Amino acid sequence: xxxxxxxxxxxxxxxxxxxxxxxxxxxxxxxxxxxxxxxxxxxxxxxxxxxxxxxxxxxxxxxxxxxxxxxxxxxxxxxxxxxxxxxxxxxxxxxxxxxxxxxxxxxxxxxxxxxxxxxxxxxxxxxxxx
Length: 130
Hints:
Blueprint: H1 2-40, H2 48-60, H3 62-81, H4 83-114, H5 120-127
Helix pairs in contact: 1-3, 2-3
């Protein structure tokens, strides 16, 4: 059972690391594209894009805005990439619960077979002792 948990931990570590790297790459690409569009003159001085970028830089700051955007990207990518692992774990837990119910039912049947020569009054009183 420990090996299953180790595999799951390693998968989540991989997904977390990959999500962090992907968010850094996307954040850098977004920064470069924004800087190019801002400097390229593909806008007018009163366009909403320029006003929005100026407002973010002046009121929030470049670094906090990048940190917020990077965190949001990381969370979105992490939840997207870990969905498969989560569904696998849910299926594993469901199968484990079904197997536990089957074992419990088999144990109950075995106990009833062992206690068949005991009168019914005593059988019910022993079942509460488990």
